[in-house]
Amino acid sequence: MKKIFVIALLILFTGVLFAASQELINAAKEEGKVTVYSITSRIANAAEAFQEKYGIEVEAYNLHDYELIEKVSKEVQSGISGADFVIAQDSGRVFGELLDTGYVYSVVPEALVDVIPEEFQDPLVFTFISKVFCYNSQTFLAPPAFNIWALADPAFEGQFFFKDPFQEGVNMNFLTMITDDYWSTKIAQAYEDYYGEEIELTTENASYEWIKAILENGLVLFGSDTKMAESIGVKGEGIDAIGLFAYTKVRYRETKDLALMPIMAMEPFAGFYYPSYLLMVKNAQHPNAAKLFMEFLYTEEGFEPWNTSEGTYCANPEIKVYPGDNTFEVWKLLLVGEDGEYIFYNRADVEDFWGSLVY
Fold it and tell me: What pTM does this model have?
């Protein structure tokens, strides 16, 4: 309780929870430069703010998740000096191809060891991003479904929208995660709750049955979460579909005048979330500048480019969520999370199953 009280006082009177040590700042300035590979273009704005604050040159590159993983792997194998650190996602591949090989590793900034929850320190999480079932709130005054098996019901034929999992790894990771014992049991119970009888399996477990069922019920695959949100939320057309897409898209309620609302009470899950990681590269040439930049990203100033809408949450719990959003701790109870090791060893099976039904 005493520690909580001290933290509260720091927030109230200073607004700053931690500060980089002068020793680290001096060492970083002596290196004079830092290179980062990122899976988000938001790194450009953060890099500009960091450079202005510390006078340290930043080379920031925005790459697709698979490009980043392959580029880092090839550079480390070849002894080429590329990135000092990365912002990476697709936890299965990060686990198997970068962490397990030793090409990258976690370094928790010293000032953040007692701030970032221990469970998010290895590998070091930067953000969590959520994808949530959403519907058109003009068409429906209340959610049109409360159980994922409704999406396999003939009443929803062709009315469930989902991003093609072969176009975005995190969507395939989600499908992989629900096949584990915990979620397959939950999905079996959800089937019984919806239909009033136990599920009869024709596949490995209830999760595979749900995947099969939504595909057979005319699942509509999109190449973009943005286009999906726009298709779901358009006003005046009686749209009665449900989409599972990035919750950040609810900002379109204001920017594009769309009618979008989440289904937080969907059983047994309301969607999924996935992490992005901050990881030091094995052959980093500017490790101190990298540490300083990483530390900066966990401050309100450094995280500002990410904190522009609902749906993105910093692993530093003292960074306030976007106004009107729920905290990550609330969403965590409602969504399917990622286990990189499980995904790495099981995703190929799910990909094969999906492919056998789609192609």
Answer: 0.91
